[in-house]
Amino acid sequence: MKVGRRKFLGAGSAALVGLSLKTDRPIAGSFVNDNFQMGHLLRDRTSFPPAKHVEKFPAVIVGGGIAGLSAAWRLRKRGFTDFVLLEMNGQAGGNARWGENEITAYPWAAHYVPVPGVKAEFVRELFEDLGILKNGQWDERVLCFAPQERLFLYGRWQEGLEPAIGLTQKDREQFQKLEDLFAKFRATGEFTIPLELGRSAKFQDLDHLSFSGWLQQQGCDSRLVNWYMNYACRDDYGALAKDTSAWAGIHYFSSREIEEKGPLTWPEGNGWITRRLLERVGEKVRTNQMVYRIAETQHGVSIFAGDTEFQAEFAIFAAPTFLAPYLIENFPRLDDFVYSPWLTANLTLERIPDSRGAEPTWDTVFLDSPTLGYVDAMHQTLRTHIERTVWTFYWALAEGTPAQNRQLLLDKDWTYWKEAILRDLERVHSDIRQCVSRIDVMRMGHAMIRPAVGSVFSQERLRFAQPRREARIFFANSDLSAISIFEEAQYRGVLAAQSALDRLHGHR
Fold first, then answer.
1. 151 assigned to some structural domain
2. What proportion of the chain, given as a percentage, has pLDDT over 70?
């Protein structure tokens, strides 16, 4: 079974941390893009001073991740430009932010998009706009170069991430059984991207069972099979199989065609898409604008950020939905929106570490590591010789509860996480400490929605995913789909923009 999906990305286990080792090379670095202090102001329901200014727009977008930027893209493409987008952070993009140094640009989270199928019409339309899809053909420069993926297990490397070394007959039989089952689910057409194109009640009962429980029902007790299934859940959902809806676990393997090309990737990962979107709508984006209150009025919506009240006919709420009870007046408490904490790091390498003779690849994973490995930002370069590069390291904090892991992220300092990362890497790259000059770390307490058991088809989620006829606030985050992937964020943003356009005066 060859399933070529990987996605967004990682945070922690204290077991990797020990006493610091001496190294000849000092390693600099810090936490970057920290915004939890602002988020905690909302959590603690801090009082804010009254607004001093008023600005009026027919539409205001709250949140500048892919959903918000996609909503802005759709509004502008339809000829509607009288709107503003408010983003809390200093950089738009959300999980598709990027960084860069003198070596290369690099991702801070999402680093690729699987080649979208024909049903993902909005994504394909966007990529046509961006010039990488022409007449049904993909620009070869954005398809991931080979070699793509490697897994380190039993002291050696293998190509691909599904274990293929040291398998017993039982392992092979169980992998084959799952491949056959996922093919049958795929053939039903119920497991689609975007989800709403196929999500019906036909397999709804699977949402009330954990993925690990479903695997047990299929008789899958192979250690390697269960490692790979857990890896898939950690990689896309930031959760273990036992904490993931069986429906979502099956969706991971049954929603895309096996023979897909790609994935699509760039040195800065999905930051490349953010850059292109900002080229089109950037003048409408205001960063460092933390929205702290939203109130529906008799004639529209008031959105408060900084010292300004933005008065609008409609608002597109593209921020994570869990923020809604803290921002929107009289908004009900949410129970079915659970988020996974992650940690990502970018390591500046002055030379390529020893890899036990293996050729460098784009994506590298270690068997039995609590982390998700790393991607190489220079993999897409056309240069024939590379000495310096940047590795983006991903770690989904999946062991324990999300609340415990969010606290762990806050409690431990940069040195702790630096050591944890190096300890994990040096199990395979013995000279890593002599190669790294800098490690910058980004902590994300609510990085991505978790498709927890019973949450994918919950009435609470479906209620906010389907806008009320009289609504003046349209929700747009990917968490409405219960799965945090690029296609879902883009789909939700476009849908919300179209809903707003349908309601605005004469703009269709």
1. no
2. 93
Query: What length is written for the chain?
Result: 508
Answer yes or no: do 323 and 452 share one domain.
Answer: yes
Residue 502 tokens, joined: 């349908």
pLDDT digits (tens, 9 = 90+) for 270-314: 999 999 999 999 999 999 999 999 999 988 999 999 999 999 999
For the chain, what is the radius of gyration of the CA atoms?
22
Interstrand relation of 156-159 and 285-286 (parallel, antiparallel or unpaired):
unpaired
Cα–Cα distances in Å, from 300 out to 86, 145, 321, 498?
17, 49, 20, 17
Rounded CA-CA distance 49/495 in Å is 34
How far, in Å, CA of 40 to CA of 34, rounded? Answer: 12
Residue 473, pLDDT above cutoff 80: yes
Q: Residue 100 forms beta bridges with which residues?
A: 105
Report the sign of the C-alpha dihedral through residues 64, 65, 68, 74, in that order.
positive
Domain boundary residue, one of 254, 279, 311: 254
Residues sharing a CB contact under 8 Å with residue 408, sequence separation 6 or more, in sequence order: 12, 14, 397, 400
Instruction: Decide if 54 is inside a domain.
Output: yes
Residue found under tokens 């009026």: 56
Domain, as residue range, for 438: 14-140+264-503
Q: Say yes or no to pLDDT of 139 above 60.
A: yes
pLDDT-derived band of residue 397, with 50, 70 and 90 as boundaries?
Answer: very high
**What pLDDT, on the 0 to 100 scale, is given for residue 11?**
36
Beta bridge partners of 474: 316
User: Can you tell me the distance from the alpha carbon of 201 to that of 190, in angstroms, rounded to the nearest whole number?
Assistant: 9
477 contacts: CB under 8 Å, gap ≥ 6: 63, 65, 67, 317, 318, 319, 320, 321, 449, 489, 492
Provide the 8-state DSSP code for 424.
H
* Separation between Cα atoms, residue 412 and residue 421, nearest integer Å: 13
* Inter-residue contact 32 to 193 (CB < 8 Å): no
- In this predicted structure, the answer to whether residue 8 has a pLDDT above a threshold of 60 is no
**Residue 152 exposure: Cα atoms within 13 Å on the Cβ side:** 24
If you search the block for the tokens 């690099």, which residue do you land on?
A: 106
